[in-house]
Write a structure and sequence with these properties.
Layout lengths: L3 H13 L19 E4 L1 H7 L3 H11 L7 E7 L2 E6 L1 H15 L13 E5 L14 H16 L3 E5 L7 H13 L9 H18 L1 H15 L3 H25 L16 H10 L3 E4 L2 E4 L10 E4 L7 H16 L3 E7 L3 H10 L6 H5 L1 E6 L2 E2 L15 H19 L6 H18 L7 E2 L2 H4 L7 H17 L17 H11 L1 H11 L3 H20 L7 H25 L8
Parallel strand pairs: 4-5, 4-9, 9-10, 11-12
Antiparallel strand pairs: 1-3, 2-3, 6-7, 7-8
Helix pairs in contact: 4-18, 6-7, 6-8, 7-8, 8-9, 10-11, 11-12, 14-15, 17-20, 17-21, 18-20, 18-21, 19-20, 20-21
Length: 567
Amino acid sequence: MLDFKNIIANKLKEVTKIDTIEKYIEVPTNSEMGDYSLPCFKLAKEMKKAPQTIALEIKEKLKISENFFSKIEVVNGYLNFFVNNTKIAETVLNEINEKKEKYGSSTIGNGKNIVIDYSSPNIAKPFHIGHLRTTLIGNSLYRIYQYLGYHTIGVNHLGDYGTQFGKMIEAYKMWGNEYNLSEDPINKMVDMYVRINDLCKKDESVLERCRENFRLLENGDEYCTSLWNKFKDLSMVEFNKIYDVLDVKFDSYNGEAFYADKTDEVIDILTKKGKLTESQGAKVVDLEDVGISTPCIIQKANGSTIYATRDLAAIMYRARTYDFYKCLYVVAYEQNLHFKQIFEVAKYLVDEKYVKGLEHVAFGMVSLPSGRMSTRLGNVVKIEDLLNETIEKAKEIIEEKNPELEDKENIAKKIGIGAIIFNTLSTSNIKDQIFDWKTALNFNGETGPYLQYMYVRTNSILEKVGGVPDFSEVDVSKLLDNASINLIKAIYSFGTTVEQAADKNEPYIISRYLINLAQLFSNFYNENKIIGEDEETQKARVYLTYCVNIVLKTGASLLGMQMPNKM
């Protein structure tokens, strides 16, 4: 597609002889200041002139065809470029005609592997609302990177190792005959876990038995291993029900246990490189020299490893297996220190190119208005319950708004799940969130249902006119009014928006873009009579509606949302 920013950059390089000038080109927030702008303040020191003088001199020397830009203005040290509206309209409509559902996709990631570690629920515990953001952010990033041509590898690093399994084994030994785990297994395992936790607090000998169970599990004890596999298999059946509803997929389910027998190599390499020191009987890597006051524990005083050691083994395994360009960890910000530590220690274990590709995609906590949760206290909100209740609420709204609608069950599912996904991905990762049904299911606010409603409106228009007009019959000169051009310019920026979302690992950039696009379409719809104008104008406006339809659906799919055709 014609790249207007690139045209400007190349012409500016010719005039200024500054090869890096492209990084200074901005998109003004106020469209009256142009479509692109060069703030010459950033060049004043280098060129030893006043910004206004620089802007005027550059403008004088620039030779850019009016075919691409209608005008270039100098305002207070800014050099502002206004794109030729006819040219951008032709560019966008041509591109969508050629690419259709692939509009905005790219090949920039070809030949590069991206590993994304997300979701990672704990075996024998409920898949609760605390896992929602990692699952949905990770799934969206998986789709975004894939859309840009990268080979993506989704990893579900299951929490399937640790002393809690010693507790679960002990609980089963004590009370297993009281529970039929073939029915509602997660709730029953949670009940067992809460009971054994309470008992461990009261009786130290029970806690010791739990620790011994885990030691036996680590050493491959047949009984303990068979129970661990039972808990894992039962949990995965329940987890997969949630993943199927959310349309979330993974390429690997290698959890902590997978790396347990790979930690010896980590310890061996760090020992040979002289990086391990003793601290209260434990073996640690001191990180004071890189500004981290807390050492990274590699081996506890009793000789066992911790999850940091297993994460380091995972980095080595992923580097060798996937030769990754990036390895993203979609994990709550509470683990900031952990990732700072292991990324530093990884420098001693893998090539520098892999260390550079390690990124912690931190996110804030999610809760309900009633507050936070704890598995130990038994007061978690399960995602399954959240999904079911949201779908039910969506069904109630449909019954009220459109009782004659066909296929209400399926549409309510798309609206309910879409509401949860959009609500989760509508703000920056790092912000804490409270999930509120009233907000998420509002059809008029900046929500998932609003986006779906605007998509359905585009569908309705296309249906009324009998489909999409033949592109050869579309006259772009009928789309030069402000409402149409603003919409076209927003569609033009879709591909750049997807790249920005990947660059910052922030799906919300796409969420905000889609809301803006939907609002611009609403304005276009209100300002222009789409059906019933002269034939040429109608065809052009209907085709622009089709373009919006494509981008709304594609953008929503990158978030993990499905669009209903009616609602």
